[in-house]
Amino acid sequence: MSETIRPAAVPATSTEAALAEMWRDLLGRAEVGPEDHFFDAGGTSLSAIKLLQRVAKRFGPDALSPDTLYEDPRLGALARAVDRATGRG
Prior knowledge:
Layout: H1 14-27, H2 45-59, H3 66-71, H4 75-85
Helix pairs in contact: 1-2, 1-4
């Protein structure tokens, strides 16, 4: 049985690229893409808190709420939410 290898996704925006870097660091993953789900990729409630702290430091305290993270924890969706909250998108 062979594994399906998916090509590395190119970040759609600078926000998505910044979040992807945070995810790779927090989750210990080499690659993450816009449809990856934070919790399915290995995220826990503790790593979610750490992510929210990093997002607040990088984008501002109101850039990403815990509710938004838990409602749709896909990388691309979170990047769009941060862009909306910060007036980038």
